[in-house]
Specification:
Number of helices: 7
Strand content: 5-15%
Mean pLDDT: 80
Largest sheet: 2 strands, antiparallel
Distance between the termini: 38 Å
Helix content: 40-55%
Shape: globular
Number of strands: 4
Low-confidence stretches: 1-13
């Protein structure tokens, strides 16, 4: 469960990577996902192929959709992700990195003083990017499969399809797309 990836749930190792290292990565990843489940990870979704009927000038076709696995009552969660599972400044590992990033971005205000980078949006963006970059440098990172998969991706919020933007209507993030395009 959880995370996908290559054989044994781990990204395929290089030709010189020994079996002990591959086994250690797989164990670390398994412990991470088991810990998330124990901490309350819940994903009440599954993939489903949906047939779209012909109409409005479109031909009939199948598409993949995500549907809930059970009835979800109003106000109840569909997905619960423990905080420590999210890759962010507050959860960056090791703790020394977290302290270094906090010092750089906030406490010592190095961004503003040395690089003349100011503004809450800039600091926020960098506080998201730095942990991602640091974790991407760690070949044994528990996020490795995901990081490898999104290596060539761009900022997807700016590339939402018309249909995806339509889904945002009536949610708390309805205006996010327009705001991101504007900025």
């Amino acid at each position: 469960g959880g995370g996908g990836g290559g054989e044994g749930g781990c990204a395929a190792g290089g030709a010189g990577e020994d079996e002990a290292l591959v086994a250690a990565k797989a164990k670390k990843k398994k412990e991470f996902w088991d810990g998330l489940r124990e901490s309350g990870l819940q994903i009440r979704l599954r993939q489903k192929t949906v047939e779209e009927k012909r109409g409005g000038g479109k031909k009939a076709q199948n598409r993949t959709a995500m549907v809930v696995t059970e009835d979800v009552f109003y106000g109840r969660s569909i997905v619960k992700i423990p905080r420590h599972a999210l890759l962010s400044l507050e959860t960056a590992q090791p703790p020394e990195l977290r302290k270094e990033l906090n010092d750089f971005l906030f406490d010592k205000q190095t961004l503003a003083k040395t690089f003349n980078v100011t503004g809450e949006d800039n600091t926020h963006l960098l506080s998201l990017a730095y942990p991602l970059i640091a974790m991407n440098r760690d070949p044994s990172c528990v996020f490795r499969d995901w990081l490898d998969l999104v290596q060539e991706e761009t900022l997807t919020v700016l590339e939402l399809t018309k249909r995806q933007r339509k889904v945002l209507k009536g949610t708390t993030v309805e205006g996010a797309y327009a705001e991101m395009v504007r900025n």
